[in-house]
Amino acid sequence: MDSNEATTSESVSKKKGKTKKVKRKVKSDEAPVQEMEQAEGEETEKKSESGPCFPPTFSVSEIKNKQRRHSMFLKLKEEKRKKKKKERKALGDKAPPKEVPKTIENQRIYDETTVNPEDEEVAFDEGTDEFSAYFNRLTNPKVLITTSDRPRGRTVRFCEQLATVIPHAHVYYRRGLALKRVIPQCVSRGFTYLMVINEDRKVPNGLVLCHLPDGPTAHFKVSNVRLRKEMKVRFLDNSRK
């Protein structure tokens, strides 16, 4: 029994000695690892201070993430700008002049065929134009606004509100009267324009504008009509947000 206890005590003491040696070795190995980590930390701090470093064959287009690609592009752009600024500061008076940005105005080539507004032929054409009295504000246009046959409530309200926007405008409801009979009455009463509002499925969808008495006539498509009250409600809702 005594011999067994002696052997077990010796084995335990040997194991303890081995564990102590291993701990010392681990402690000795931890020192260079800590030094390496400190050196790496200093290098990363220096890199962060100087800016992001990229490999020489790096391309921003290789980044698949859109947000990251955009941020990297801005960083590269800022680096180039700082680099150019340092170079210009180092050169001083010998620095080359700044590049003028390219725009549509400074890249436009002068066209010799463009008409000079002070040309005699242009002035003559403008003076003899049939609409020259309107452009020179010598005559005030008088507009008659009418609708298609049997209009609905929305079209009627649209015509009333349109008359408040157009100066010298009057609203006339046809009530089944043909346009061939309306036009002579407009000419006799001094109207210079006839405006017809068409509708489809109780909604305004077209506008015909005719110059009296001999034309020309133009047709316009109307879509997404909003009356004054609807626009006001929408504006208030947006302002509250």
From TrEMBL:
GO terms for cellular component: nucleolus; preribosome, large subunit precursor. GO terms for molecular function: rRNA primary transcript binding. The keyword rRNA processing applies. It comes from the Eukaryota. Residues 14-26 have a biased composition (Basic residues). Residues 89-100 have a biased composition (Basic and acidic residues). Residues 1-100 are annotated as: Disordered. InterPro entries: Brix, IMP4/RPF1. Residues 141-241 form the Brix domain. Keywords: Ribosome biogenesis, rRNA processing. It is found in: Nucleus, Nucleolus. GO terms for biological process: maturation of 5.8S rRNA; maturation of LSU-rRNA. The keyword rRNA processing applies. Pfam families: Brix. May be required for ribosome biogenesis. This is Ribosome production factor 1. It comes from Cyprinus carpio.
